[in-house]
């Protein structure tokens, strides 16, 4: 089976953790999966070596990671030349109300519009509140946001909202997608 690159942009570590879990799930499906930060100096080479690619980005202040945009803009042709997918990580995806769902959809639309890349597979996962990683001002701001959002305002601990079953099922779907694409190519060659 082929090599799959899971490239991520993560500020406080939750998107990186999700990328790791996706890579484990892909490996369980028989793929050679590796993770890399989009900021790594050799991420372009890792992409060139890969047969398929997933890109993950967290959301901060209503926007996706700048390094992820830079990676996608610089390598769009290489990304589009392979089976590809995108996953987004945010607090909004942890909330079960209509406004939050609309926000999640808007973030995805904005990413597609601003990057110019139309991923073949997309997913949105709940992230985390990592008070232990925040400086004083960010901690105050996130406590205020959390009060209305999740109610989790005890900054002496962290909170994780990621649904790991959803993450594994996305990875399984992507593994199947990659296998079906390879099958098509092999079938075409056999005709
Ligand atoms: C300063 C800051 C701003 C954030 N802004 C948003 C936001 O606008 N919308 C949202 O849904 N989540 C927001 N979040 C939540 C993050 O998306 C969430 O914490 C995520 O797990 C971060 O992923 P990372 O650890 O990979 O960077 C924000 C978090 C922080 C710390």
Automatic annotation (TrEMBL):
Domain Flavodoxin-like: 4-169
Gene3D superfamilies: 3.40.50.360
Source organism, top-level taxon: Archaea
Annotated InterPro entries: Flavodoxin/NO_synth, Flavodoxin_dom, Flavoprotein-like_sf, Protoporphyrinogen_IX_DH
Gene Ontology biological process terms in this record: heme biosynthetic process
GO molecular function, one term: FMN binding
UniProt-listed PANTHER family: PROTOPORPHYRINOGEN IX DEHYDROGENASE [MENAQUINONE] (PTHR38030), PROTOPORPHYRINOGEN IX DEHYDROGENASE [QUINONE] (PTHR38030:SF2)
Annotated protein name in UniProt: Protoporphyrinogen oxidase
Protein source organism: Haloferax gibbonsii (strain ATCC 33959 / DSM 4427 / JCM 8863 / NBRC 102184 / NCIMB 2188 / Ma 2.38)
Species lineage: Archaea, Methanobacteriati, Methanobacteriota, Stenosarchaea group, Halobacteria
């Amino acid at each position: 089976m082929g090599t799959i690159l899971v490239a991520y942009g993560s500020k406080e570590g939750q998107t990186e953790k999700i990328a790791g879990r996706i890579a484990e799930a892909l490996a369980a499906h028989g793929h050679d999966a590796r993770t890399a930060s989009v900021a790594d100096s050799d991420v372009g080479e890792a992409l060139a070596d890969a047969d398929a690619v997933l890109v993950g980005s967290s959301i901060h202040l209503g926007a996706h990671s700048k390094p992820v945009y830079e990676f996608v803009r610089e390598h769009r042709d290489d990304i589009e030349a392979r089976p590809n997918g995108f996953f987004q990580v945010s607090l909004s995806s942890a909330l079960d109300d209509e406004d939050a769902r609309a926000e999640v959809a808007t973030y995805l639309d904005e990413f597609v519009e601003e990057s110019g890349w139309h991923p073949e597979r997309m997913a949105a996962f709940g992230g985390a509140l990592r008070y232990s990683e925040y400086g004083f001002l960010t901690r105050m701001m996130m406590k205020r946001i959390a009060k209305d959002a999740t109610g989790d305002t005890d900054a002496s601990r962290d909170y994780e909202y990621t649904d790991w079953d959803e993450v594994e099922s996305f990875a399984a779907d992507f593994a199947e997608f990659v296998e079906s694409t390879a099958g098509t190519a092999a079938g075409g060659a056999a005709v």
